[in-house]
Amino acid sequence: MRNFKIILIMSLLLTFNMALGQQSDNEQVAIGKKFITLVSAGKKEEAWQLFDKKNVPNLSEEQFNAAFGQIRNILSTANVYELSMSGIKNTGNKKMNFYSFKGVSKNKEAGADVYVDLLFFENANLVAGVSPKRLVSVENIPLHDSNSSTASTASTTAGQETQLEGASTISIDDVVYKVRGINIVHFEKEKGLLAIQVEMKLPEDSSVKENEFKQIAVKFAKYLIGNGYLDKARSKFKEMDKKLLKDIGVSFYDPDKDKGYNVMLKPQEYK
Questions:
Q1: Residue 54, domain CATH
Q2: Is residue 176 within 8 Å of 147, Cβ to Cβ?
Q3: Separation CA 250–CA 270 (nearest Å)
Q4: What is the pLDDT of residues 201-219, one digit of tens each?
Q5: What pTM did the predictor assign?
Q6: How far apart are CA 20 and CA 151, in angstroms?
Q7: Structure confidence at residue 209 (pLDDT)
Q8: Residue after which a domain boundary falls, among 88, 118, 135
Q9: Structural domain of residue 38, as residue ranges?
Q10: Secretion signal: which residues (predicted)?
């Protein structure tokens, strides 16, 4: 499990139904590539000018700037982006165009492919949402066991974390899953996120299927809540005078492929 803090979404907090395979708007695609290039180059002000402030008034420039560094950090592993998927997301009575760009890593040793999902309102030529993701090679994830030198649990991040439980097996709906670790991922200095890593076979198709992963992730988030891990994490962080975020992270790891996929669920998604 690694770097849930890199899965950052700046978009409307709406429930989407998506239809893939729609014809792309060439101008939106061009603007999307320009936006990604500006972020990758660290040009914050120029990138902000391409954000749809009219249709997304709930995102301030201050919030954009706060997220900019994390987004740029993800994009730093790639230098070429190509459109890999497009479609339409319905938001009630409105439609938004969806584009997923795949970035090729500059350094194969980085062990990560980068994907960036962009949203545009119909007939608008400014970015309304951006969601960068990193498909991580698990061989680069530090494994640890606090009680021995044998690797048995996955570190959720390359930085600081607090372990709640090591490797174990759990049963959900009469299906047994292998859990590599349940941890609190530390963000910045005062925030944290409850996260679980589960071993699961990933599909051969490596393209991003966020909705499918989220549907599966919900049952693991509910397991954490139902078995007291959320309360335990809150209590632990309260002792440390830190704030636990309401989001829950679920990481899927395929040992055969040595790759993982991270999902971050908001409260309205797992309740």
A1: 3.10.450.590
A2: no
A3: 11
A4: 877 665 556 677 888 899 9
A5: 0.48
A6: 41
A7: 63
A8: 135
A9: 26-135
A10: 1-21
| Alpha-carbon gap, residue 3 to 86, rounded angstroms | 26
Query: Residue 92's pLDDT is what?
Result: 61
Judged by DSSP in three states, 236 sits in helix
Distance CA 230, CA 237 (A): 11
Residue 267 exposed, middle or buried by CB count within 10 Å (0-12, 13-18, 19+): exposed
Distance of alpha carbon 196 from the chain centroid: 14
Tokens of 11: 């978009």
- The 10s digit of each residue's pLDDT in 132-171 is 776 544 333 333 333 322 222 333 333 467 888 888 888 8
3-state secondary structure of 5: helix
Q: 258 is written with which tokens?
A: 């040595």
Q: What is the reported pLDDT for 34?
A: 93
Q: Which of 20, 10, 14 is nearest to 52 (CA)?
A: 10
Helix (H) or strand (E) run with residue 132 in it: strand 129-137
Print burial letters for 55-67: b (CB count within 10 Å at least 16), e (below 16): bbeebeeeebeeb
* Mean pLDDT rounded to a whole number for the chain: 75
Residue 202, phi then psi, degrees to nearest 5: -90, 150
Q: Does residue 104 sit in the same domain as residue 190?
A: no
